[in-house]
Amino acid sequence: MSIIQAKNIYKVYNETNVPVNALNGVDLEIEKGEFTAIVGPSGSGKTTLLNIIGGLDLPTEGDIYIEGTNLKSLSSRKLIDFRLHNIGFVFQAYNLIPVLTAMENTEFILELQGVPKKDREKRAMEILETVDIADKKDHKPGQLSGGQQQRVAVARALASQPKYIIADEPTANLDSKSTEELLTLMKKMNQKFQTTFIFATHDQRVMDKALRIVTIDDGKIVSDTQFER
Amino acid sequence: MLLAIAWRNIWRNRRRTLIAASAVFMAMALALLMLSIKYGSLEQMVSVGINQVGNLQVHDSGYWQNKSIEHSFFDNPKVEQAFKGLPEIKRVIPHLQTFSLASYGSQTKGIMVSGIDPKLEDQQIGLSNKIIKGHYLQKNDEVLIGDKMSEFLKIGVGDSIVLLGQGYRGVTSYGIYKVAGIFHLPSNEMNTSILYMNLTDAQRFVYPYQKGLLTGFSIYLDKPSLAEKIKPVLEKKLGKDYEVITWKTMLSELLKTVKFGKAANQIFVLILYVVAAFGIFSTVLMMTMEKRKQYAVMVSIGMNRKKLVWLSIMETFMVSIVGVVAALAVMSPLLFYMHFHPIPVTGDMAKMYLQYNIEPILPFSVSSSLFISQTVIILTLSFLSALYPVIYVLKFNVLNAFRH
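Above: the input entities. Below: the structure tokens describing the complete assembly.
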């Protein structure tokens, strides 16, 4: 069964006098365990689609279902709670909380979920070990390299045990080595824990690792290809 | 963890936080210093007033509204008994006051005759120190008059003054007394119109047929604040025939002046706090603008906006509390030191203070209400400053915040 079902999604932005059609009837289904890249030129609508899949934005028309729950039916407060328990985020600029250490950043989401202190410390440590950054657990983001920060961001996303992880241009600010390491890590998580990853990317290196590539242009899906790698 | 985030967030820009906290510190420190001196002076005025009238007075029921000699009473064991068993009472001074005509030669004047216990009265208000000619009351049939009355009646020390008035129960009271001394009190009204005599002389003057007539007792307590507690106790013990009046009622005009004096100072304090409020608000504004992305990330990953509201409130309060704690830490010891070692007033100003029976010092108040009120004002300003980030956090659009 699909964990994500986007049905006939339209998104129109009316922030200026001229309405902008960011998505024009997108239908997309994503199964558990997929490692999918959404690609397309700038302004094609891939980030808008990712925001809608991530519950950060709602479609103007159409419906988005996550394991049967229509996100449009949720109140703003419930939507935040839904994201907390179901969706992990990895951002292009890492977006870690700058005043918290790597360990605390990972723990933070568990605290939001109400996990007791002892359990969350244990789980956060395990995840940091999994993403191979445990030795930097007491470092704050400013003391870490871009690649290390993105590993912590992945750890934070994994900590909440989400149904899927949204990653918007996660390698855009990383050098080749860090990109390779991050992709290897994500792939490992995908294979080991069946974690679903959905990327929006321009990066060929990400596309080369993806098992499915959805190409979007002018707000429409123009191709959808699966790979055996 | 929210507490840790808030605390660390405010120190991300250490200099800015210190500038905002310094504005709070300066405003609060100056306000405390200024108000401590002002409140100290006003408290001193009240203290002098209480010293004159007592913390409580006991009269015949209705005397306070109608100060007639007909509302006097005879000293009796019931009244004496009521004062016993109350360790808070430090001193009880009986008095008898009545109106009379005073005459010398061809001059006559309406005056107030005040019968006092010379020893007790002197202990309490130091009347003997106010004598500028002659001597203090030493024996019966002697009186003390003010310098203005002396000028009006053209009477001096050693002369005899004739008193004629309405006594108790319709008796005509009269007597002839020797002027033992002339006093000068701070109040010209008192110098013009009051005459002091021995209590037993006054009782004989007003009602010669029975001893012990009084218009009231002035009661001095260990602390002025105990007056409200002791009043109902005494009322219960004395019954309906007597009334018990607190110093707040007796000095109501003075208290109005004190209240006005405190309010007038608030304008300057307000200016100080407006500066502090802008310091806090500008910091909060900058912090909010800087953290739009951080807020957006927090909401994205699932942080409830209510928690974010708490976080922003905590940050605002922490900046203020740093300033408040610093101001209290610096000013409390300083003001307490000044309270116990007040600045002496010298020269003509000191003479004026002494004329008003006020110790020539610049007193500093260390009333807890002073510190509490200033802390509450700062925290209220912080709360108002926190409204901006609170409204922002409740309303902001996550994706727009990311774009910024």
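Note for the figure: The CA atoms of residues 216 and 228 of chain A lie 21 Å apart.
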